[in-house]
């Protein structure tokens, strides 16, 4: 005989429960937020590079002429230092945009894991606590996703605020410095 006389039924497998309502859209929104944070960091990096090029070109043009801000009149001097301050504020704001951020609320035992810092805190509390936190995350995925969305959206909004401030200051400095030289 080449095989069993009767067919063997396939093994019984348990299908995973469908995600709770809202979990799929929350996961999609979280992925979108992570993409948006990456774009914000890229924008800030490009603006920092543009700021460096602007400052370099302006400095190069003036350095070749044996020029100093002290040669400006009172109005020109005010415009010069206001423009210099605006570029410094721009650099600070753009660096703050790319500065890594962490969620404001701390993880507590019994809470689901929703962020890398949560995993670190649970692991620091011991392997048993990490195991419980993993189980809580699997038991109530929507709660963890909601916490992740809250923290991540706050981070994205902060990055955009700093980029906006940096861009405004960069624009002001880019207008004020040439105006100072032209005013004399």
UniProtKB/TrEMBL annotation:
GO molecular function ontology, one term from the record: nucleotide binding
One Pfam family of this chain: PycTM
GO cellular component, one term: plasma membrane
Alphabetized UniProt keyword annotations: Antiviral defense, Cell membrane, Membrane, Nucleotide-binding, Transmembrane, Transmembrane helix
Subcellular location: Cell membrane
TM region(s), chain numbering: 44-63, 78-99, 162-182
GO BP, sorted A to Z: defense response to virus
Annotated segments matching region Disordered: 1-21
Positions of the Pycsar effector protein domain: 26-182
InterPro entries: PycTM_dom
Protein's name according to its UniProt entry: Pycsar effector protein domain-containing protein
Organism: Streptomyces albidoflavus
